[in-house]
Design a protein that fits this description.
The chain is α/β, with parallel strands linked by helices. The chain contains 11 helices and 10 strands.
C-alpha cells in the first residue's frame, strides 16, 4: 500500500490549496501534523502563493478532529508528544502572512474546528456541522480552541460549545460569527476559490500588511495597535504597488499590480 500523502498542496494563479487527505474523516494524526507544518512553512515562504485555501478531501468532513486511536501512545506525556507540535502547526496557520480561507465540508469537529478558526475567513456548506466535543472524552480543546473560538463568537457562546460538546449547524455558526459565509452543500471549495482568486488579484503586500494590522487588534492594546499600524501604513506607501495604484487612479485605468 502506498504511503498516504495526508496533506496535498496545489498552486495556481496565486492561489494555494492545502487539502487534508486522511480518509474518510481527515483525522489529525501525529504525522499529518508534521506534514501540515512543513507545508505551511513552504507556502509562507513562496512568493507565488498569495492566498491560501485550506480544505478537506471528500465530502464527509473538513476534519473530524484528532485520531483517538493515538491517544494511548501519547497519554503519558500528551503535551510534549501531541499538543505542543499540534499547537505549533496550528499557529503557523494562524500567523500565516497572507490571507487564508477555510472551505468547510461535512464535519468540522474538535481539532478540525480549531484548525479552521486559524484561518481569516471561513466558508461553510449549508450541511456542515461544527463542534468542540472534547468534553465528551473528558478532555478540553487543547489546540487553541479555548482562545480562538471565544475571539470569534464571544465568551458565552464559546463556553456553550465547549461545555455541551454538541454540534451546531452552519447557519447558527454564521449567525454567531463563527463562519463568514454559508453556501449550498458541496459548494464550499468552489466559493472559497472564487473569493481566493479575487484576493489574489489584489496587491499582495497591501493584503499582508492589512492582515498584520487587523491582527494587532487581537494581540495588543488599542493604543499600541494604532501606533504600530502607523508603521505599517508607512511601509505600504513605499511599495511599488502603492505608486502604481495612485498612477492608475489618476490615469483612470486598471492598475497593473506587481505584488511587491
Amino acid at each position: 500500500m502506498s504511503d498516504p500523502q495526508l496533506v496535498n498542496v496545489t498552486l495556481e494563479a496565486g492561489v494555494a490549496v492545502l487539502t487534508l487527505d486522511n480518509p474518510p474523516l481527515n483525522l489529525v494524526t501525529l504525522e499529518l501534523t508534521r506534514r501540515l507544518r512543513g507545508a505551511l512553512d513552504r507556502l509562507a515562504a513562496d512568493p507565488a502563493a498569495r492566498v491560501l485555501v485550506v480544505t478537506g478531501a471528500g465530502t464527509r468532513a473538513f476534519c473530524a478532529g484528532s485520531d483517538v486511536s493515538e491517544f494511548p501512545s501519547v497519554a503519558d506525556d500528551v503535551v510534549r508528544k501531541k499538543l505542543t507540535p499540534e499547537n505549533e502547526a496550528y499557529s503557523r496557520l494562524d500567523d500565516f502572512p497572507k490571507p487564508t480561507i477555510a472551505a468547510l465540508n461535512g464535519l468540522a469537529y474538535g481539532g478540525g474546528l480549531e484548525l479552521a478558526v486559524c484561518c481569516d475567513i471561513l466558508v461553510a456548506g449549508a450541511d456542515v456541522r461544527l463542534a468542540l466535543p472534547e468534553v465528551k472524552l473528558g478532555v478540553l480543546p487543547g489546540s487553541g480552541g479555548t482562545v480562538r473560538v471565544p475571539r470569534r463568537v464571544g465568551e458565552g457562546r464559546a463556553k456553550e460549545l465547549m461545555f455541551t460538546g454538541d454540534p451546531i449547524d452552519a447557519e447558527t455558526a454564521r449567525s454567531w460569527g463563527l463562519v463568514n459565509r454559508v453556501v449550498p452543500p458541496g459548494q464550499a471549495l468552489a466559493a472559497a476559490l472564487e473569493l481566493a482568486r479575487t484576493l489574489a488579484e489584489r496587491p499582495n503586500r497591501a493584503l499582508q500588511l492589512i492582515k498584520e494590522a487587523a491582527d494587532l487588534a487581537q494581540d495588543t492594546t488599542e493604543d499600541e495597535a494604532i501606533r504600530r499600524t502607523l508603521a505599517l501604513s508607512g511601509a505600504v506607501f513605499r511599495t511599488e504597488d502603492a505608486r502604481e495604484g495612485v498612477r492608475a487612479f489618476f490615469a483612470k485605468e486598471a492598475p497593473r499590480w506587481r505584488h511587491r
